[in-house]
Amino acid sequence: MDSGMMSKIEKARRYAEQPDRICFEEFKVRLAGDNDSHVVTFSGGQWSCDCLFFARRGVCSHTMALERILGTMIPVAQEV
Ligand SMILES: [Zn+2]
Known about the structure:
Structural class: alpha+beta
Number of strands: 3
Strand order of the largest sheet: 1-2-3
Radius of gyration: 17 Å
Strand content: 15-25%
Bound molecules: zinc ion
Shape: elongated
Distance between the termini: 53 Å
Order of helices and strands: HEEEHH
């Protein structure tokens, strides 16, 4: 392996240990819930989930689970 690639791998390792460098702008995932699976999206700073609870409250167990996983890389959904 050449030294250029070695330095890139080292930099990647350092970046991966510093998640505060990362800020999600958008994503879409399917979460397998206990009763049904739900599609959760994040775009333009806004969360969305196709479950009924999210439609009523603007936050749900699915968005909260993703907040826990993503930590500082994503803003927390606000209850409406
Ligand atoms: Zn939901």
